[in-house]
Amino acid sequence: MNQAEAAVAPGFVEKAPLERYVDPDRPSLVGMSRAELAAALGELGVPPAQSKMRVQQLWHWLYVRGITTFDAMTSVSKELRATLENRFTLERPAVVAEQVSVDGTRKWLLRLPGENPGKRPHEVECVYIPETGRGTLCISSQVGCTLNCTFCHTGTQRLVRNLTAGEIVGQIMVARDRLGDWPGERSPSDAIVPTDGGRFVTNIVMMGMGEPLYNFEAVRDALLVVADNEGIAISKRKITVSTSGVVPNIKRTGEEIGVMLAISLHAVRNDLRDELVPLNRKYPIEMLLDACRNYPGLTNAKRITFEYVMLKGINDSLSDAKALVRLLAGIPAKINLIPFNPWPGTRYECSDWETIEKFSEVVFNAGYSAPVRTPRGRDILAACGQLKSATEKLSARERMALRAMAMTE
Ligand code: SAH
Ligand code: SF4
What we know:
- By secondary structure, the chain is of the alpha/beta class.
- It is 32% helix and 15% strand.
- The chain has helices spanning 3-8, 34-43, 48-64, 78-87, 165-179, 216-227, 250-257, 270-276, 285-293, 318-327, 353-365, 396-408, and strands at 94-100, 106-112, 122-131, 134-138, 142-143, 161-162, 203-206, 239-243, 260-264, 304-310, 333-339.
- The chain has a 9-stranded mixed beta sheet with strand order 1-2-3-4-7-8-9-10-11, with helices on one face.
- β10 (304-310), α10 (318-327) and β11 (333-339) form a beta-alpha-beta unit.
- α10 (318-327) packs parallel to α11 (353-365).
- The radius of gyration is 22 Å and the shape is globular.
- It binds S-adenosyl-L-homocysteine and iron/sulfur cluster (SF4).
- Residues 151-153, 207, 211, 242-244, 264, 307, 309, 338, 340-341, 384-385 line the site of S-adenosyl-L-homocysteine.
């Protein structure tokens, strides 16, 4: 939204979805919860007395072994395998492109079915970031975003639609497929294993495209599948949902999902946050921090991460840094300073390195560890806020400009 539109409709902060998800004739079992699998089996005539055992078998094949064909389900009778295959698939989102950064970051462009067959499919991006001791997968919750933060490339896109729970879990399945991250599988020779003999994907962050708390039910259902300790088994402490501040769903995130929370704060005054994160007009800073103070399960060992993007001359003064630590006093918090990742047409610039260091010193002296998030995968446009699906394709020239900016930063 530009300034003129804002003046006409000061209350406008949310976009309506343009399309909806349409169930295919043969839905995929990938991403289904135990209850959904039980219902699917019931529909196929599996007697209730057998249901629990069959669900357990499917759960194992789907989420522990990561199988991609019904034939691989060797503990399931041939007859049931055939019946299943008649009605369902094991499809994941299709990989349209894979890019590998010089730093080992990998980015996948994934295709999801569009509302109208034959018309434009929907696309999202998913990024894998290996570090020493852990491998983080950054996944998307929407095609586009409901919101319109002014410094975010995704925010300039229209909201196409919410992802389904299956498509959210599907991103993790695809990443593990491509990394050879299932038992007994081979990995690509250039993939960096973050842990000794361990798994590639150890952590999940919902920091890709979209605002997860505007797609609450699907995000909840997906993350409960991912955290189930008899399946994909990524513990809730290693899953982080990042929100720009959808206050009514913050408490629900703690109660109904129980994962770690990150808040995209970015400003310490309402007038500035109204501009950077227009949702602030609906849920201002005080209201947001109140929801944080009351986040279920919040302790010093389970802190909220506050994200703060460093914008030159906008929010990066020392008085902003001091105000930030005052604002967060009393909340078990971590502060994550993110260097702004530029994109073509943006009105912002990243703060100078020296300014970021001074800012971080104030935060550090106030007792917070203040890691500056090193931009990863910039050469493949995989860094925060650069994700933008090909649903709104960049021109070749724009892409080159972006890449040049990313490489020279
Ligand atoms: N919608 C959610 C999650 C996705 S954005 C949210 O806003 O929290 C993930 C993080 O990247 C957020 O903290 C967001 O503010 C930040 N971000 C967006 N655009 C950015 C950019 N151009 N440079 C750096 N960080 C950016
Ligand atoms: Fe959406 Fe998050 Fe980008 Fe804001 S920062 S537009 S909420 S993806």
